[in-house]
Amino acid sequence: MDNLKYTLKNLMDKSLRLENKAIDAAIQSNWKEAISLNELILKTDKKNVDAYLRLGFAHLQNGQIQMAKKYYKKALILQPGSYVITENLERIKILETKKIKQIKNVNLNPYLFLDMPGKTKTVTLVNCGQKSILAKLAIGQEIDLFVKKRKVEVRTLDKEYIGSLPDDISKRLKIFIKAGSEFKCFVKEASLKQTVVFLKEEKKGKRVAKYASFPVNIQSNLQNISVKDDYEGKDEDEELTNNDLEKLAESLGEEKVDLGYDPEDKDEERED
To answer: What's the first-to-final CA gap in the chain, in angstroms?
Structure first.
């Protein structure tokens, strides 16, 4: 009896280690390793729904649509009516209808979504685009920001509309981009009903060097931004004026970034 308990405990410990490794591989977007580990799990546990789900997701992110479909269908047999499974099968159906045999395969840098306070932000898009476009998105896929008069749109590199940034983020980024800041945008989560993106500051405009691109609480500091009405009436190609930045400075005075020095002091040194 003791030997049986010892054997069962070892099997459970081994299974748990495999589960944890499979989850870690998925978190790091190492899809090939995730597939291999989940297949090992299913060899000893044919009814492991989570393993089927992870396999479906990993194959989908790896661009293998038919394999993803196979595992999601197996998961649905064990867990009928699951929202997650049915949504992913709907996504696959859309891809098949559009005759897309493979979604974009992204070689994801494991450090891509590393959070840097003030320089990065995870954002859920609003006014999302067509399902046929959302269905093709892959985690880690680079996408573009397009500044409009009243919002910042997010599109694929092929100019397909994905969604828009919320008003508070849009208002801020429009000013920062006009001031010379540059940002990159990547897909962090993707489904047919919700897309989450990761914004990353690549370059800080000199004229907004004192301000964090993404302060902790953007909304509270945007309530008093007086630049709003003046800015939204301008043409998209109109240059940002000193007056715009002065108004920004007045309303965002509490958001100065600690650079270890004051850029104005550096200017004075150069003049000396």
So the answer is: 86
Element (H, E) at 187: strand 182-190
Of 190, 183, 128, 132, nearest in space to 153 by CA? 128
**Is residue 108 a part of any domain in this protein?**
no
140 φ, ψ (degrees, to nearest 5): 90, -5
- Report if residue 270 sits inside a domain: no
Q: Rounded to whole angstroms, how far apart are CA atoms 127 and 150?
A: 13
Do 31 and 152 reside in the same domain of the chain?
Answer: no
The type of residue at 1 is M
Q: Tens digit of pLDDT for each residue in 29-85?
A: 788 899 999 999 999 899 999 999 999 999 988 888 899 999 999 999 999 989 889
Number of domains within the chain: 2
pTM above 0.70, yes or no: no
**Which amino acid is located at 250 in the chain?**
E
Amino acid at 80: P
Please provide the DSSP assignment of 208-244 as one string: GTTB-SB-S-HHHHHTT-THHHHHHTS-TTSPPPHHH
Using CA atoms, how far apart are residues 197 and 207, in angstroms rounded to an integer? 26
Tokens of 145: 């920001």
Q: Give the position of tokens 């500044």.
A: 147
